[in-house]
Design a protein that fits this description.
The structure is a single chain. The chain is an alpha/beta fold and about 300 residues long. The protein is built from twelve helices and eleven strands. Among the domains are: about 1-65, Orthogonal Bundle (Arc Repressor Mutant, subunit A); about 160-260, Periplasmic binding protein-like II (D-Maltodextrin-Binding Protein, domain 2, 3-Layer(aba) Sandwich), CATH 3.40.190. The chain has helices at about 5-15, 20-25, 30-45, 60-80, 100-110, 130-135, 170-175, 180-185, 200-205, 220-230, 240-245, 275-290; strands at about 50, 55-60, 90-100, 115-125, 140-145, 150-165, 190, 215, 235-240, 250-255, 260-270. The longest helix is centred in the first third of the chain and has 23 residues, at about 60-80.
Length: about 300
């Protein structure tokens, strides 16, 4: 089924900016023209594509079609480079699902080394970035370990090391009798969001028990470090964010020599692998410096 490029660009712009008016400004047409394009596209595919609200959001079909449009843009940009054509439409856009801790520690360096791309990042908990790729709503993703997605080329990147950390005063208050299953069940911990299982995984690894401690929900990697230093709770912090505070004593490990290493994988839709080869090369290069070798 062939879809009108003007209709696709209208859909992508609305979902990017959240309104018909902003899309009209970006595409230099009237809001009425944007509305007509969306109606024509919805008639063509036989489904609603946009939840009209403030902001406008995509239906599952709308998100999938918008991602298809961006994938076409990546392939056209690759062809233009190969044929040394002028790219009058500007840089291509790529949508990537990235765990928040990866973005906070090293992924920006990988993006900065790639020219000719505009990035649209979906930031989610590390255990769920693969779902965005599986649903076809992103072109590539950093995923955890063995969560491989059919139809994608995959690259093992290495492991992101986490340390269970807390402030010295917090340790004195909650773990004066040691870090045990009993004390862990009572001590407040920090949790990124309701999908985050890192703290529970670490507890199970250290105690052999499944424990659900009282939790603060705090969806910010740097906020995690700050909250731990402030004595709000203990949490699993990436070593890259926590190292300075560990070095100067504002944070201490709950247990010595008890890291949690999370293996990461770069996955790209196979159709787009060649178009995104420069990004893949950059991701591999930066990850090799930022992550630990994966233990096999």
């Amino acid at each position: 089924m062939l879809l009108d490029p003007n209709h696709l660009s209208a859909l992508s712009s609305i979902l990017r900016h959240g309104s018909f008016e902003a899309a009209a400004v970006e595409l230099a047409v009237t809001p009425s023209a944007i509305s007509q394009r969306i109606k024509a596209l919805e008639d063509r595919v036989g489904a609603a594509l946009i939840h009209r609200g403030t902001p406008c959001t995509g239906t599952p079909a709308g998100l999938r079609i918008a991602q298809h449009a961006e994938d076409i843009g990546l392939l056209e940009a690759k062809l233009a480079r190969e044929l040394t054509l002028d790219q009058a439409s500007g840089p291509a856009r790529v949508r990537v699902a990235v765990p928040a801790d990866v973005l906070a520690t090293w992924f920006i360096d990988a993006m900065a080394q790639v020219d000719g791309l505009l990035f649209d990042l979906v930031v989610d908990d590390q255990d769920h970035s693969a779902e965005w790729l599986r649903r076809g709503e992103v072109s590539a993703a950093i995923t955890v370990g063995s969560q491989l997605v059919a139809g994608c080329d995959t690259t093992d990147l290495g492991a992101l090391r986490y340390i269970a950390t807390a402030s010295p005063s917090y340790m004195h208050q909650w773990f004066a009798d040691g870090v045990t299953a009993h004390t862990l069940a009572r001590a407040p911990c920090l949790t990124f969001n309701r999908k985050d299982s890192l703290q529970k995984s670490w507890i199970t690894e250290q105690t052999g028990q499944r424990i659900a401690p009282p939790s603060h929900f705090l969806p910010s990697p740097q906020g995690f470090v700050d909250a731990a230093m402030a004595g709000m709770g203990w949490g699993m912090n990436p070593i890259g964010l926590a190292q300075q505070a560990l070095d100067d004593g504002r944070l201490v490990p709950l247990l010595p020599d008890a890291p949690l290493d999370v293996p990461l994988t770069w996955q790209v839709g196979r159709v787009l692998s060649s178009a995104l080869a420069p990004l893949t090369a950059s991701v591999k290069q930066v990850a090799a410096q930022a992550l630990l070798p994966t233990q096999h």
